[in-house]
């Protein structure tokens, strides 16, 4: 199989034994083949390199390797570090091929690359900054290589410390289909100032509104066709952004909550713990514990009962430890509890695309979609499209196989692009 992969593309003359350039090939693990493109360039320091990889299947684009090194003529090592794990690649250059072994913890696989000549990008990129109150936000603007003014999409953040890389893949897909895309680092992440851990929902909405306003200064952006895309927390806050900014022309809300936020949190916690509760007694205690977590976090109940349950139940198979008392989870949950997504959906008057995975374990998909649709219908907005993808999870991916590599729900990307085409 590796020999076949190495024959995909013709070699680029004169580059043997030089790691710099474009490489196309695959990672192979547990009988699964993952197509990958890698781009390596020389660093400003002699003898050092910078590298990044892209994968349609993983929905990532231009993700940087943490470490790249070359020993002697041909021995290569790359380290890729993610949120939860690290990959270490060790291989050797053979003319215009690069092959070797990678490890993720105790799992092992092989990789095989062949030199490639990449097609010119259909979009240009440049970094930009903009202000939101006393915070400076930094991002990347992707502009299609077409004549005239173009529509645009601003990407909102999910929960946690999310940087611009989280939405970069979708941004590249939209830009390749004629939509400018703005992705930016959440406050306190990457090159943005501030602190996401102390931000309120209003702060995050204000950041998104500022991003939309920033696009108005771009001469190639059609100010009458600027939309927003938000996933999870971003999708839940999207209607408020659309109401607060008069320049939002359409909304894509992915995995957006349509229930009170405390109900959504309880749903999420129970989805996490109940599969690990093998007995009726375990299920009952797990439900009590999760319910008390939400009561403290979202409703401000005293911690006495919750802390005692944490001690009493810590040996149960489903148990998860509580965040520390000073963890941002408690303050943000209390602030988020005051946010009612349906209140804001009732004020949205622009076209809306709702996207869900049917097996979402973080947000009750069918019920959320139904509630949002009912509110839009009652308030006279008939410009709604809803897509719920069978078998897909919170990230719109199907359950991974033995390799651990996920598969995107069929038609997910094409559905987004097709709906966007109607906004041009």
Can you describe what's shown?
The protein is α+β, with helices and mostly antiparallel strands. The protein has 3 domains: 2-116, Quinohemoprotein amine dehydrogenase alpha subunit, domain 2 (Lipocalin, Beta Barrel); 123-260 and 340-421, Rossmann fold (3-Layer(aba) Sandwich); 261-336, no CATH class. It is built from 11 helices and 19 strands. It has helices spanning 2-6, 165-176, 201-215, 233-244, 261-273, 280-299, 304-312, 328-336, 341-345, 365-378, 412-421; strands at 21-29, 32-42, 49-55, 60-64, 67-71, 75-81, 86-94, 97-104, 107-116, 123-132, 135-144, 150-155, 180-184, 221-231, 248-254, 352-357, 384-389, 397-398, 407-408. Strand 2 and strand 3 (49-55) form a beta hairpin. The longest helix has 20 residues, at 280-299. Mean pLDDT is 94; it is low at 1-15.
- Kindly name the structural category: alpha+beta
Mean pLDDT, nearest integer? 94
- Full CATH superfamily name of the largest domain: Alpha/Beta hydrolase fold, catalytic domain
**In what range is the share of β-strand residues?**
25-35%
The level 1 CATH classification of the largest domain is Alpha Beta
Identify low-pLDDT runs. Answer: 1-15
- Strand elements, count: 19
CATH architectural arrangement of the largest domain = 3-Layer(aba) Sandwich
The biggest sheet, with number of strands, parallel, antiparallel or mixed sense and barrel status, is: 9 strands, antiparallel
> What characteristic shape results from the CA principal axes?
globular
Fraction of residues in H or I helices:
25-40%
What is the CA-CA span between the terminal residues?
43 Å
Order of helices and strands: HEEEEEEEEEEEEHEHEHEHHHHHEHEEEH
* Rg, Cα atoms, Å: 23 Å
């Amino acid at each position: 199989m590796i020999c076949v992969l190495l024959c995909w593309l013709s070699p680029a003359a004169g580059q043997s034994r030089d790691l710099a350039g474009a490489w196309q090939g695959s990672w192979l693990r547990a009988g699964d083949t993952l197509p990958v493109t890698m781009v390596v360039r020389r660093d400003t320091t002699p003898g050092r390199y910078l590298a990044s990889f892209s994968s349609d299947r993983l929905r990532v684009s231009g993700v940087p390797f943490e470490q790249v090194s070359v020993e002697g003529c041909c021995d290569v090592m790359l380290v890729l570090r993610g949120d939860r794990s690290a990959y270490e690649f060790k291989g050797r250059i053979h003319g215009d091929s690069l092959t070797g072994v990678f490890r993720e913890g105790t799992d092992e696989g092989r990789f095989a690359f062949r030199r490639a000549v990449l097609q010119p990008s259909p979009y240009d990129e440049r970094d930009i900054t903009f202000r939101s109150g006393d915070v400076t936000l930094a991002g990347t603007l992707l502009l299609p290589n077409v004549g005239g003014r173009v529509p645009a999409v601003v990407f909102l953040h999910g929960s946690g410390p999310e940087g611009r890389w989280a939405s970069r893949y979708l941004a590249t897909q939209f830009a390749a289909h004629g939509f400018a895309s703005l992705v930016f680092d959440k406050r306190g992440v990457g090159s943005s100032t501030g602190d996401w851990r102390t931000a309120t929902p209003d702060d995050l909405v204000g950041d998104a509104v500022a991003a939309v306003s920033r696009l108005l200064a771009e001469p190639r952006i059609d100010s009458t066709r600027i939309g927003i895309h938000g996933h999870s927390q971003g999708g839940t806050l999207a209607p408020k952004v659309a109401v607060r900014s008069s320049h939002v022309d359409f909304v894509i809300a992915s995995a957006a909550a349509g229930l009170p936020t405390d109900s959504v949190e309880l749903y999420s916690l129970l989805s996490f713990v109940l599969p690990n509760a093998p007995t009726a007694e375990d299920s009952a205690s797990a439900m009590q514990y999760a319910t008390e977590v939400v009561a403290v976090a979202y409703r401000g109940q005293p911690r006495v009962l919750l802390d005692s349950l944490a001690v009493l139940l810590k040996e149960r198979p489903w148990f998860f430890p509580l965040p520390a008392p000073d963890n941002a989870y408690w303050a943000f949950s209390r602030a988020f509890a005051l946010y009612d997504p349906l209140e804001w959906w009732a004020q949205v008057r622009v076209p809306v695309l709702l996207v869900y995975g049917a097996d979402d374990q973080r947000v009750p998909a069918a019920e959320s979609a139904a509630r949002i649709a009912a509110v839009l219908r009652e308030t006279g907005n008939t410009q709604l499209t809803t897509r719920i993808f069978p078998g897909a999870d919170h990230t719109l991916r199907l359950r991974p196989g033995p390799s651990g590599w996920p598969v995107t729900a069929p038609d997910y990307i094409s559905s987004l692009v097709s709906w966007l085409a109607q906004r041009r």
